[in-house]
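Re: Re: token formats

Sure, here are both.
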Amino acid sequence: MPPFLRLLAALAFPSLALADEVPGPDSAAFTASGQVSGILLPGLEEPLRFAVVGDFGLSGVPLASVSSMMRRWDPDFIVSTGDNNYGPLDSDADSNPALPGAQNSWESNVGAFFGDYLLGREDRKFPLQQAPTQRFFPTVGNHDSAPDPSNGGTIDDYLDYFHFNPTGQARLPTDRNAVHSSEVSYYAVRQGPVDLFVLDGDVPLRPDLIAAQRAWLSASVAASTARWKLAVFHQPPLTSGYRAAASWMLWDELKLVDAILCGHDHFYERLDYFGTPLFISGAGGQYLYAFRDPPHPRSLFRSNSLYSALLVTADQSFLRLESRGVSLSTQEETLLETTTLGSPEPVVNHHTYRFFAESGETIALRSATPPPLSSPPLAPSLDLIPPSGLPLIPDHLSSPDGRNSELSHLSSQTGSWQVKISASAPGRGAFLLQLAILSPLPDYARWSASLPPSQADPTADPDRDGCSNLLEYALQSNPAQPGFPADGAWQGLRLHRPSPDGPLTLSFDLPSPLPPGLSYQIEAAPDLQGPWQALAWRAPFADWQGADALPILTSSPRPGTRRCSLALPPTSTRHFFRLAVSRNG
């Protein structure tokens, strides 16, 4: 061993700000105690995401751009605020009998862009409708049904395309007193924490149908258990557009919902509907409208510079509505405005913690739910994630209380592991998560039991080779035989410098897995008197870490051995290096 290398044992080393105590971007870490705590508020496994678009129904570059933007969001479903089709509205019109429905304007203006969100009829009348479940929920607009003079279709064509299924189940909801007739179409649909009440506002000359819907909305909202309740219809009761607002839709019942979604005016606008936010999302593909000056006094935000749609994200704690526009020339997406109702943070139904384990060690995890318990009580579950990422290892034991989980797994990989603790609704509350890393090697007491009692102290050196019992134990060498065996993991600290002024590499081998109950540290000093400073360390539940982001490379040159290499910056100053070992606790 070169004269400037020293190997020393220490019973303690200075307190360090260990890197494993600093949470990463996606997970926190176990501290040296092997226990963490937190709170779980179960809701949806992932927040619900859906898109809202209106006044899009004409094939062309604007609709293609908006629909492509929406597809990038990967929404769970799509809501239309009306005017789904500006073309000829006869759903039986077909210029190509060999391909039923393919030439129909409903297919070219809706199915071509959203067909994989539409449940297909069993008779396959509209081939572009290909979804296994209905994930498109439309609203009747004035361009979707008579008596609008600009088209000759009827509401029956709208229902034929979206709802009717002569040989199968109806494709739009029919429960909760929904109505789908040649006069009017309205329904409610529950998706996760959101209840959508889809109204038909295109009946301005039918006060009886308006009154029936007002009564239906009031009763339906009162009966709903959803966290968020949204009303959806076409013509807005308030607007900054040049066209008159829909006075027949000025309902007190709309104040019962959390938000109102409309279309009809070809822009994006957010207004205050007497305490309830009203969103106009009508910039889905038809030419954009101007705003009148001055705008409506209840207008809070307006944009007509881009074609746009709404991305809505929701769970049990928050509802976020993002108006997003798209450039027709560059396809670049722009966030126009974000509105959040409820808590700005999503429900926390899982936490992930990371720790380090070596091959051959046993990972033991246990959850606990301390009192006071919620009603119903929290029932955590555990998933262990190996360094390779897959496969997940679920908990397989139930603790005696029948509520908490235990997990024990023999590691076959060396690296950074993660454990995910999660829970499903309705239980919620605090938890403790305990981790133990069990080495196959004996602890110090068992290892030193074969030594004479007078020579079993960690500071003793029975073979007088300059290495204490603690160091011999840490390196898994023989305390009764001087030096280190040729086939042992430890062969000393090694230095390599390819050129006199080049970088210096310090490397060393240690047993793998390491014996339990120890921490390791590599230190450097200008002389043997010190001061000694830490270059790298390995603390419980963490891999080797370098001071000041010092890079550390690890490898396994042979079974049972793990090599660490530290790349040190070039220096002309002479240094001594040592390995320091301490007992935990």
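Second one below.
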Amino acid sequence: MDLTLNQSYEDNLELQSSRIAYFSLEFGFSQSMHQYAGGLGILAGDHLKSSSDLGLRLTGIGLLYHEGSPHQRIDQSGNQIDFFEHVHIDQLPLTTVFDEFGHPLMIQVAFPEGNAKVRVYEARIGCITLFLLDTYHEENTHETGLMQITDRLYHGGREHRLRQEILLGIGGMKALNAMNLLPEFLHINEGHSAFALTELVAHEMKKHNKTFHEVINQIQSRLLFTTHTPISAGNEVFTNDLIKQHLVSHCMDLHMSMDEFIELGKSPNTESHLFSMSAFALKIAGASNAVSALHGEIAREMWKGIETKSKQITSITNGIHTQSWIGEHLAELLDQQIGDSWREYPESVDSWSGIMKLSKDALFHAHDLQKKSMIATLQVRSALSERSIKLDPNGLYIGYARRFAMYKRAYLPFMHIESLQRILNNPLGKVYLVIAGKAHPDDHEGKAIIRHIHNLIQEHDLQSSVVLIEDYDIALAKSMVQGCDIWLNTPRRPLEASGTSGMKAALNGCLHCSISDGWWDEAYAPNVGFRIPHAEFPPSMEDQDIIESQALYHVLEHEILPKYFSRYSNDEWSMLMKSSIFHLGPRFSSTRMVKEYAERFYIPGIMESKGGK
């Protein structure tokens, strides 16, 4: 089934008349809405944007966090200080959802101490509606625990997180039902919203007077689970006791004993006293997918003990929303030189065919303007944190920006300081390393990496070459992927599921340099970027770090620097930039991604449920 852009809605009658619900614990789609923490939320935002571009009848469901997600300061000792800022709802692009009587829509979700009263807000993203659930209001002031469910993203203990996931899954489906918007297809983004699957089952059981298994057999093809990580800590688990305390009412709706329900969350990967949200989603959903080809291989191995029937985990590689991430000056150049069809058909190679004919001077000029804009942003951000920096616009800028987690190894460039200093102060020209990113508030190892890097910068007087920027967000991400020359990624293979920041950089001619992991494992070619060789069978992780840091230094010193600093005397660097944009831009567009979801899952599931072929 081949869907072309905008034909998915206009020409496919089943899809045109069917609603798709997309659940996610976080959504990142604008700087003003700080309702995201990292790549999961940004991916969800891009999914909604491309769904709008394609004309899909898709609805987003999330939570409205009154203090958003954590902001970050780094103190003089290198410690990450997490802080929150209260969100003024009336200043956000949100409107209240009203019921049929003109009152604010209010649903109720059961918790041990009583029912939480939940308001619903909506945001418009193109032609897509995102509904956000809210308990932080006066109707819940009698019970602080209920009111604070939507206080903050990724903050609080395990019970608080479970409450948020119950609200998202069960409450989200109840809200859709109250608005007469129950979906024909349900797509959950990561296991956080897995209870939406069984809440839909419970609704169908009641409506048609059928058993749990009868309904599952009938609607399973309409349920899709996307898993985003092979890291154990990224797959949510709760104790059986917490599940028993909070899901009694839900089990009753499913006509299921608590022991039967808890069994759905069991897997060979978790201890017997723990309930796995990912295992639960895998068992309930009719289809599951990973977010890159390599991640698919890892996920199939990781979860092989609970895969059933024909529900093998497949893969759809992530993508990015082209118009959201391409730089202003590069976009203007493309409009002038190759036309603007890349805006309407970003996933089509034909839309980008004129890229290879761009003049080197015009391409460099557009990129230099974006680099100067980035430098200005870095200087402003540094001044806000009382750090003064002076940056040369003619230098080579290496960007490293992502969540600080141990497996992402932000410390790898600092393994051998003398080698790093030699690269930064290379006689060919000035080199800068720009670093940004946050550690999860509870990730003490990630925070220790930030402190380690900060202290190394101070100890070895690297402040003039290594720029550590606080509070990574959408605005800083855009500035860096559009203005840097190299985008660095150093994960421990195969633990990076995808890695969309590199796609954003590649779209802007910022060349990706990475271990062969996530999306880069399938995207790399010598004409589009650089690959850091990984150690195949290292004796230990310490040996792996040493081997791969040396490989990184070699790639930087002997491949990247000579090419970059001779960019005006030959065409090698400009050809790499053009090839990166031409080959990777359309291939890793979220328009391509969403079309794959529609072709492989949405349409077949909807048609099967309606008796189609």
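The first helix runs from residue 7 to 11. Residues 322-588 form a domain with the Rossmann fold fold (CATH 3.40.50.2000).
- S.
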